[in-house]
């Protein structure tokens, strides 16, 4: 179990996190959820990050590394008052731009252990294809450039291996029941790569129409990079995980999606956990917290079949059984990034008790605040 304690880091006053198999982060915008998760990746993948920056000819110096990694303007995010303790060991700012002594270079992605899917991921797709690392302005954070490069490589590899140019849905990629729910709730069609004059583009085939990327709905465009990332992480072979990845970070997987689509996405998250990944998610949707809360009452897999509208007679019921069993056993945690006058602090609200006297717990980190007030008004006026 990884632990991270941070003080005086950007908007963070003090956080103390024990990461579990499934860890959720909630709280208002700009409270530091993404920054802490980016820091987590940096602490684990520092050597890979430095190798990647070197590969793309970025000039890494002590004074500019934080700008290159977190994005321009973050040069002083780690200052003399900052304290970072990861797994019981204090980390120093001066060591960030230096590779681990004696480490050998790995092949691309082989040394990376944390796969990070950022929130504003729609920017990674331009005119129907993922952008490469060097196609971004130098001021764009490393997280976006790296994720986009993974997608570019993945799509190009799939083009070589799959002559039909099929991206989604494809048999053997994603579990059947999950794939079908994603198709029905988000795309209702097929995503393919087509050659258009002198270039390639991903198009959506719906009802005989071939829609270019800019003609897709906002939710379909938002979900495409997440879909590609999930597809990348879920190999069809008997090996359940991709390369050396141990952890998957997803920011706001609910972005732009209808509740039915969010439920389908939750199934993919459960599959990731079953495959052996630890999954950390930032969210502004109460649906993900409801999933954690309901697990306090789930007695067996039958409850999960009902929750996700899956028939026990499904053709892939054996694989669904396994992912549900694994999720029931998985350790889960929810952290509230609570803003204060001195900066953000974290609070473990994992029990999500709606009757707790602590407002942070009963309101699920403010996600239920509006709903609770609606209920109070209805009860008051119904008397």
Number of helices: 11
Q: Tell me how many strands there are.
A: 16
Helix content: 25-40%
Unreliable stretches (pLDDT < 50, length at least 5) are none
Q: Distance between termini? A: 50 Å
Shape: globular
SSE succession: EEEHHEEEEEHEHEEEHEHEHHHEEHH
| Overall pLDDT score | 91
Radius of gyration: 21 Å
Roughly what fraction of the amino acids lie in strands? 15-25%
In CATH's first tier, which class of the domain at 3-143 and 244-352 applies?
A: Alpha Beta
CATH topology of the domain at 3-143 and 244-352: Rossmann fold
Protein structure class? alpha/beta
Q: Strand order, biggest sheet? A: 5-4-1-2-16-15-3-14-13-6
What would you say the CATH architecture of the domain at 3-143 and 244-352 is?
3-Layer(aba) Sandwich
In this structure, how is the largest beta sheet organized?
A: 10 strands, mixed
